[in-house]
Please model this.
Amino acid sequence: MKSTNVTWKLIWKDEVYEASDDERIRNSKTGKILNQRKKRSGYWYVKLCPQNTNTRRTKREYLVHRVICMAWKKKYTPQMVVDHIKTKRNIPSNLEWVTKKENLRRRWQHKYTTPYIENPF
Model:
């Protein structure tokens, strides 16, 4: 069961999208929770219109774990990737920015022995 005390943080400065601490993305102006879809790779994504552009043509797919990490973990640089620390859940306490090299090292070290948890959205 999900907690009713959900905390939201802006994803980008001066933008309308927020990420929650329970794997959801919403439009802060309308309050609408955005639909998430699953890629063939198994990762979840949402479609957002960044940079205050509100036309359908400018919507772009963003991986949910990257969006949540951008909002909650501020050490973002384009060379960094998101590592799921313990499980595949997209909650801030389970995500961190790492280099590609570090992510591969962890992947080999842990060999993904933790079970996959399905995103409910």
In short: Strands lie at 8-10, 17-20, 25-27, 37-38, 44-48, 60-63, 81-84, 95-98. The longest helix spans residues 100-110. The chain has one domain: 8-110.
